[in-house]
Design goal:
mainly alpha, 21 helices, 75% helix
């Protein structure tokens, strides 16, 4: 219990230090709090400080993040796992709980200051980008299948999982892997490679992608001009400005906003109990997004200052936690080099085709990047990348495309998998 409390304190307090450093150092501010949190998490997770589950424990978990410690004691007494696995399971439990909480809390806070009328003018481009992204993914999946079908066992299953993970994130990957009864070792290896390549890709999206794509794609332009736009521009320029949040007035207002976000999260959780387990995360995301948008139409809520920054604090916490879960050491733990190449081809190949199609259809850089993010990493990562791009206008567009990916990713992944099975 002591370890869990200590870890929670670290995950909640270290982002505060990062935010402080961005305010006192111009260099640190240019790097950005999200990128620093992500880099710090990767260092922490791969430094050996946090224990990693053994292969035996991973097989016992069967894709779950953790399980009650009492359930592991029989495996410990039988010598199947070690005492370090109990600690690794405890750490993973803390990480899983924090990831489950901080994103649903952050999304309403990020949306409270949103101007829905502006979003309606952006959604057309986002939907086009979504279609182009899915077309790009399917093209690369079929190409990869014909390149590696003689080298990778059950490639049709792997291809289905890759379609799922790059339309809805890890939840879709796990759902399709379960539906297709993928071998646990193959699932773990695919997931590990996906996390490694995904981490590299995410780092690119957070840092250089905007500058690179702006060299040949149109720049993002706000859909309207006028006083309301000027207000949004000032807010966008100040997304990294956390000063004033802890004044008596600011703290009182933010506590009200946080309380409202907690209620929205609770509503989403209650509604998710009415649907099958595999649809619960989708239900929560849909509910909190819808209610966040609804409450943003109330001036009393929309005018609360620093709600976006409070939401971004939770995003920084999320970035630190999820990065610390990435295990780079297992990347070449087997001779499945072809599988690693396939995953890398799927990620970077689909992005390359997507960007090429975006150039043909004259889609702007930020919309293209946020769609790639929403499809490849799921809705929780949308605010992370939007914050790095310093463009909160694209958050709702990204959440919308991400939710659609959540909704249809499992169907599309299974459909493609069985098509490839028929071809084999």
């Amino acid at each position: 219990m002591f370890i869990s409390i200590l870890l929670i304190i670290f995950y909640l307090a270290f982002p505060v230090l990062i935010i402080y450093l961005t305010h006192i150092s111009r260099t640190v501010n240019k790097i950005g709090a999200v990128i620093l949190a992500y880099a710090s998490g990767l260092i922490l997770g791969n430094s050996g400080i946090l224990p990693r589950p053994s292969p035996a424990l991973r097989r016992i978990l069967e894709g779950r993040a953790s399980m009650p410690s009492g359930d592991l004691l029989p495996f410990l007494s039988q010598g199947m796992i070690h005492h370090t696995d109990l600690l690794a399971n405890q750490v993973a439990g803390v990480q899983d709980v924090l990831m489950t909480i901080v994103i649903p809390l952050s999304i309403p806070l990020l949306l409270f200051s949103t101007d829905i009328r502006r979003w309606m003018k952006l959604i057309k481009g986002a939907m086009l980008s979504l279609v182009l992204g899915i077309v790009s993914l399917i093209m690369i999946i079929f190409s990869g299948y014909y390149l590696f079908r003689a080298e990778i066992p059950d490639l049709w299953k792997v291809s289905g999982m890759l379609v799922g993970v790059y339309t809805g994130g890890t939840p879709n990957l796990a759902a399709i892997g379960t539906a297709l009864k993928v071998d646990p070792n193959l699932f773990i290896l695919t997931h590990t490679y996906e996390m490694v390549v995904g981490a590299i890709c995410l780092l690119f999206l957070l840092t250089a992608a905007q500058r690179v794509f702006n060299s040949f794609l149109p720049h993002f332009h706000a859909p309207e001009r006028g006083p309301s736009l000027n207000k949004m521009v000032r807010q966008s320029e100040g997304v990294d400005n956390y000063l004033g949040m802890l004044t008596q007035k600011g703290l009182t207002e933010l506590l009200k906003a946080l309380g409202l976000s907690v209620l929205i999260f609770a509503a989403g959780g209650l509604l998710s109990l009415l649907v099958p387990k595999e649809e619960q995360m989708l239900t929560v995301i849909l509910t909190i997004t819808s209610l966040g948008l609804l409450f943003s139409t109330f001036k009393r809520v929309n005018r609360i200052e620093k709600t976006f920054q409070l939401g971004m604090y939770f995003i920084i916490v999320f970035s630190l936690v999820v990065a610390s879960m990435g295990d780079l050491r297992g990347m070449f733990s087997s001779d499945f080099l072809s599988l690693f190449i396939l995953v890398a081809l799927t990620v970077f190949g689909s992005i390359a085709i997507h960007v090429f199609l975006a150039w043909i259809f004259k889609l702007d850089t930020d919309t293209t990047i946020i769609t790639i993010t929403a499809l490849s990493y799921s809705p929780p990562f949308v605010p992370v990348v939007a914050g790095a791009l310093r463009n909160k206008d694209i958050i709702i567009s990204g959440l919308t495309t991400g939710i659609l990916g959540y909704a249809f990713g499992n169907y599309l992944g299974l459909f493609i998998a069985y098509i490839l099975k028929g071809l084999s």
